[in-house]
Design brief:
The protein has a single domain, classed as Fumarate Reductase Cytochrome B subunit. The two termini are 23 Å apart. Helix 1 (9-31) packs antiparallel against helix 2, helix 2 runs antiparallel to helix 3 (79-110) and helix 3 runs antiparallel to helix 4. It has helices at 9-31, 44-68, 79-110, 131-165; strands at 114-116, 120-122. Strands 1-2 form a two-stranded antiparallel sheet. The chain has 4 helices and 2 strands, in the order H-H-H-E-E-H. The protein is mainly alpha-helical and 177 residues long. Helix content is 65%, strand content 3%. The longest helix is centred in the C-terminal third of the chain and has 35 residues, at 131-165. The chain is elongated, with a radius of gyration of 18 Å.
Length: 177
């Protein structure tokens, strides 16, 4: 694949859609009740599972799009900046995938059905009551905070490029640019 110097409209749209879904998911996760033995898959819990499935779908589409339409880093970046950018993007993709799969396994532990867009049923990743799936749900919660930290570093990196380096890196992903 030939790398281009700029992100296209689809790449930008997918980036900001993932951002919007994550903001919604964190808000839903904050609002939903603690999931315990008697919690039902309804209300905020059902929304959390559905939005999680949507994030997984959009991230998968975004990852495939990025592989088919690679974008080169600006030549003005230092080697260390390229390495940090690469590590940050891999961490974001990896954490999103792992967190969602672990949450899905945790839902399977509870016997909750997970559907994509409320229509497409996804298979359970474990039998109801499976010990490893319960642990997966616990790890899911911890990694959510790790993702917040990595996302914060991603935003700080973008702001560094905008206000300190002033090299146009942030503008490459902004809508309308």
């Amino acid at each position: 694949m030939t790398e281009t110097p700029e992100y296209g409209g689809i790449a930008k749209s997918l980036h900001w859609l993932v951002f919007a879904l994550l903001v919604a998911q964190y808000a839903i996760g904050w609002l939903m009740p603690h999931i315990g033995r008697d919690t039902l898959n309804e209300g905020w819990v059902a929304w959390h599972l559905g939005v999680g499935a949507a994030i997984l779908f959009v991230v998968a589409v975004r990852f495939v799009w990025r592989q088919i339409h690679p974008v080169s880093l600006p030549a003005t970046l230092h080697a260390w900046e390229r390495q940090v950018a690469h590590a940050a993007h891999l961490s974001l993709y990896g954490l999103l995938f792992v967190i969602i799969v672990l949450g899905w396994a945790g839902a399977s532990f509870r016997g909750f059905a997970v559907t994509l867009f409320g229509v497409v049923p996804l298979p359970a990743l474990a039998e109801k009551g499976t010990a490893w799936a319960h642990t997966a749900g616990d790890v899911h919660i911890v990694l959510v905070y790790v993702l917040l930290g990595v996302a914060a570093l991603h935003v700080l990196g973008a702001l560094y490029h905008r206000f300190i380096k002033r090299d146009g890196v942030l503008q490459r992903m902004l809508p309308g640019s």
